[in-house]
Amino acid sequence: MSDTTVASQKMWRRLGWAIAAAIFVSDQITKWLILDLFSDSERPYFVITSFFNIVLAWNRGISFGMFGDGGALAGNLLIGITLMIAVGLSVWLTSVQTRQSAVALGLIIGGAVGNVIDRFRFGAVTDFLDLHVLGYHWPAFNIADSAIVIGAIVLMWESLFDNEKPLTKKDGKVDNGGKTPGA
Questions:
Q1: In the prediction, which pLDDT does 164 show?
Q2: Confidence of residue 171 (pLDDT cuts 50, 70, 90)
Q3: For the chain, how far is it from start to end, CA to CA, in angstroms?
Q4: Where in the sequence is the domain holding 29, given as residue range(s)?
Q5: Neighbours of 124 (CB within 10 A)
Q6: Is 123 in contact with 34 (CB distance < 8 Å)?
Q7: pLDDT tens digit sequence for 141-166
Q8: Residue 64 maps to a domain
Q9: How many domains are contained in the chain?
Q10: Three-state secondary structure of the chain
Q11: CA distances from 7 to 20, 106, 149, 150 (A)
Q12: Quick check: is 110 in a domain?
């Protein structure tokens, strides 16, 4: 790999980790603020706009509360699966080839770790963003959920439309780190 390629890869890897850290910290701070807000209030929600409320909801399942009635075993299984996914994505981030992948992986890792911390602390994920239109409410979500969805969309977009070229050698061939294909 050329020096420029290695430098770019390191820069993108750092970018991915910085995004993961920023998402994790912002997710945990907002959840702490929401828990504090609702601990001092008798109100079930706060109206922000005609289509947006702040609520306190506990999600024991995965997306949209699916599998939320499985008890402690299901909660521990979700923690384990999420941690395995976060580790796998972290390994992927160490060899990231594009800026979009670094950003997407950082978003997903930061969000996944933020939600795992909630599961460890409370046995459920703290959700608080409530969007609604004409009486129909989207399931409540949080910063981590938003980051995971945006990261997944970026990865899908990149895989479908390949907006950014992967890191290459000067001769135009993709560098595979000296590995023989299939080895």
A1: 55
A2: very low
A3: 19
A4: 3-161
A5: 17
A6: no
A7: 999 999 999 999 999 999 998 755 55
A8: yes
A9: 1
A10: CCHHHHHHHHHHHHHHHHHHHHHHHHHHHHHHHHHHHHHCCCCCEEEEECCEEEEEEEECCCHHHCCCCCHHHHHHHHHHHHHHHHHHHHHHHHCCCCHHHHHHHHHHHHHHHHHHHHHHHHCCEEEEEEEEECCEECCCECHHHHHHHHHHHHHHHHHHHCCCCCCECCCCCECCCCCCCCC
A11: 20, 18, 29, 26
A12: yes
> Do 12 and 98 meet the contact criterion of CB atoms below 8 Å apart?
yes
Output the CA–CA distances (angstroms, integers) from residue 10 to 7, 117, 120, in the order listed.
Answer: 5, 28, 32
CA distance 174 to 166: 7
What is the rounded CA–CA span in Å between residue 155 and residue 160?
Answer: 9
Task: Give the pairing of strands 52-59 and 125-133.
Answer: antiparallel
Contact indicator for 82, 155 with CB cutoff of 8 Å: no
Confirm whether 175 is domain-assigned.
Answer: no
* pTM metric for this prediction: 0.82
Q: Which of 156, 140, 173, 168 is nearest to 5 (CA)?
A: 168
CA 133 to chain centre: 26
Say if 179 falls within a structural domain.
Answer: no
Catalytic residues: 127, 145
Q: For residue 119, give both structure tokens.
A: 């599961």
Q: What digits encode the pLDDT tens for the residues 31-69?
A: 999 999 999 889 999 999 999 999 999 998 765 554 555
